[in-house]
Amino acid sequence: MLDDYQQLVDEISAALGAPTTLENRDFELIAFGAHDSGAYSTKADEADELALDPVRTRSILRRRSTAAVRAWFEGFGIARAQAPLRIPPDPGAGVFMGRICLPVRHRGVVHGYVWLLDDGHLSDLELGGPSGPPDPRLARAMETAARIGALLAAEAQADEELGGQLRDLLTGPPGGRDTARTALRAALRGAADGPLALVAVTPWAPRDASNAEDAEDYPSARLPSPPGVAAVCVLPVPPGPGPAAGPAAGPAAGRSPAAGLAALVRLRASTALDPARTAAEHLLRSAGGGPERSGTVRDRGFAGVSAPRRGLDDLPAAWPEALAAARAARADARLGPVAEWSAIGPYRLLAALPAQAGPDPVVQALLKPSHAELARTAEAFLDCAGQASRTAQALGIHRQTLYYRLSRVEQLTGLDLDAGEDRLLLHMALKSARL
């Protein structure tokens, strides 16, 4: 499929004599072609072209554009455009060259954009409109863009079917799981035998159709599919083992995400989860949870990676693992934004507990905002295995200050921090409250 896109992009680039890129509607790079005086450029020529336009450089080298660049281009109405649009340069935004945008549509839905880089030689190109028909070369380019749109639409349909099969396998009724497993195995062929891992991203809030004005152009949000991802779907996320209150809780405490993204990732080996982590980071950016997004920690997305699996039969058990790891990443900043099931320690047990009405009674008084420093001290003390010197050093306080705070913790909870069972209860109650 990638070769098909590349061939079509090269056709447009050659016909119009301009460097060309193809991006999907999430501004993720699919293919690009360079053109230089009637022949394709050398690598040196391409490097020179890239240096002239930082936005194109980033798109090619990082495979996507920033949210700011996306917003700037969408401000010209490209998501609603039915015909080519001319985009002026804006050096302040890093757009040193103008562009002609060819919307890639299929049956009225925008699936992506073809970008023609214009150093001035396309300034007289007639785009068409009330003043007259478009330049014949541009008309042919739009026909090629329509062929690209048909390919993208077919790919989206195939991805949607795979996603439905994955959803039925993970959370469907027992009778439907066998059917979904068979269909998924047939679609994935050899990859179905593994090794595989599941990635969970919560909360899932894709950026498609965030603008109500563009909703008609995005009737259904296509889910991202990074390299190595075999299938993706959106699933409801059940409540965790208690409200998100605790030593690190903020204003968003108590809200459980309503939906999460599940991604089935192919691994190179059952001992290497690197492809799953890479896919998780890509998906977080697609969900707006990457470093480009502003907001508090609990506003952003987090991802979890299950233990590896060999084949499809054990995937339903892998989904709770991935979800628990994502919750742990959200609860404990030391784990996130991507956490692996094997590395979340006590959260593996706590995430499996049923939903509660509130935090354990032993920590209720300790979790009041006025006692936040005491709760943080108690958790640090227990994380350090009760070693006072390590705890004081970690918190940057004097040991006498630590002893005073721990005595206050005992008064508030009624627990004896010299007793192993009391320490265990307090430690688990604080960790559970984080979830």
Automatic annotation (TrEMBL):
It comes from the Bacteria. Residues 374-431 form the PucR C-terminal helix-turn-helix domain. It comes from Streptomyces bingchenggensis (strain BCW-1). Signal peptide: none annotated. This is Transcriptional regulator. Gene3D superfamilies: PucR C-terminal helix-turn-helix domain. InterPro entries: CdaR-like_regulators, Homeodomain-like_sf, PucR_C-HTH_dom, PucR_C-HTH_sf.
